[in-house]
Structures are given as structure tokens and as C-alpha cells.
Design the sequence.
């Protein structure tokens, strides 16, 4: 591996840095975007069942908020109704929307960075290719004729940087698209959960009693 890095020249170092960052982001997003941490399948039904006759105690709401991102959104709506039993429907919906935007922001964290790496890696590879081509042309000049060693090094710089850039860009783009699709699915789940919770919570407000 070290011999490959030497043959590729200094342009490969930014690509190595990109590969390390991309791998770290992919592992982190795999961990953070698990279903159990975002939107457990039965959580909404359990919350509706527990709150069918009365609103829960504050410690129960706090545990719900710590359960997952969906739990945090649902807990925000519960706290709003507990704090203001006269809360109107539009205010309750705005509360859910605000909590949902915060949840979406957390789910999308680092995705732009991963997408940037996927877009920038081929350009860094192109930079390495250009530098390698410069060395190839330089090896053909001079009064002594061509320099085989410099020619070979220029070819190595061009090819290794191009190949390594594609090895970084393709997986990064694939995982970026995959995580973006997961986030879109979770956003839909959060929106549907909020739509079910609003009429359920309005039963506990003064105007609907």
C-alpha cells in the first residue's frame, strides 16, 4: 500500500483524507439512522394507547423524548397540551412542525458532507491525472531525450489518482443516495405520526371537552 501511495505522488493525500472522512460518515450514519433510533414501528400506537384516557406524567414524557426522534416529536406535542390545555389546533400543529424540522435537521446531519466528497473526489482525481500528464510531457523534453523513470512516474500518478478517486466517489455517492432515501422515508413516518397525534391530543384540550 505504501508503495502505491509513493507511486501516486502527493495528489493522493487529499483523496486519502476524503476516504477516511467518507468511511467515518458512512459508519456514523448507519448507526444514527437505525429504525430503533428514529421511528420504532409500534411507538405511536403505544403512545396513543397509554394516553387514551389521560395525559401521562412529566417523567413518562421525558422517557418518551429519550426513546427516539419520533418519541421526541410526540413528546413535544404532549408537553404543549400539558402546558396549555386551551391550545388551539393550529398552534399544536405548528409545535409538531417545529419539532419535525429539528428532527429532519438531525437526520440530514453530515449528508451534505458525504455528497460533497462524492462530487469532489473525481475532481481531485482529475487534478492528479493532470499532474501526471505534466510529468509525462516533461519527461519527453530536454536535450538528452526522454526520461523513462519520469515517464513511468507520471503514468503512475495519473492512473493511481484516477482509480483511487473513482473508488471513493462511487461508494460515497451510493451511500449518499441510500441515506437520503432513508431520511425521506422517516420524514414521511414523522408526518403521518403527527397527523394521527393532533386529533388525539385535541381531545384533551378545553375546547374539545
Sequence:
Amino acid at each position: 500500500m505504501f508503495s502505491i501511495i509513493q507511486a501516486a505522488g502527493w495528489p493522493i493525500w487529499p483523496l486519502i483524507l476524503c476516504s477516511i472522512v467518507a468511511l467515518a460518515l458512512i459508519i456514523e450514519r448507519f448507526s444514527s439512522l437505525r429504525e430503533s433510533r428514529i421511528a420504532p414501528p409500534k411507538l405511536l400506537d403505544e403512545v396513543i394507547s397509554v394516553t387514551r384516557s389521560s395525559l401521562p406524567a412529566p417523567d413518562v414524557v421525558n422517557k418518551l423524548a429519550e426513546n427516539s426522534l419520533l418519541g421526541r416529536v410526540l413528546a413535544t406535542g404532549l408537553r404543549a397540551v400539558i402546558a396549555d390545555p386551551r391550545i388551539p389546533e393550529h398552534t399544536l400543529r405548528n409545535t409538531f412542525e417545529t419539532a419535525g424540522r429539528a428532527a429532519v435537521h438531525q437526520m440530514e446531519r453530515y449528508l451534505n458532507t458525504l455528497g460533497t466528497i462524492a462530487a469532489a473526489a473525481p475532481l481531485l482525481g482529475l487534478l492528479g491525472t493532470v499532474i501526471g500528464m505534466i510529468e509525462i510531457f516533461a519527461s519527453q523534453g530536454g536535450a538528452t531525450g526522454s526520461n523513462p523513470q519520469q515517464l513511468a512516474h507520471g503514468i503512475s500518478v495519473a492512473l493511481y489518482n484516477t482509480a483511487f478517486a473513482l473508488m471513493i466517489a462511487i461508494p460515497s455517492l451510493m451511500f449518499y443516495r441510500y441515506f437520503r432515501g432513508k431520511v425521506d422515508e422517516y420524514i414521511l413516518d414523522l408526518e403521518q405520526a403527527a397527523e394521527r397525534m393532533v386529533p388525539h391530543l385535541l381531545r384533551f384540550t378545553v375546547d374539545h371537552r
Observations:
- The chain is about 80% helix and 0% strand.
- The two ends are 72 Å apart (CA to CA).
- Residues 2-208 form one domain.
- The chain has a mean pLDDT of 88.
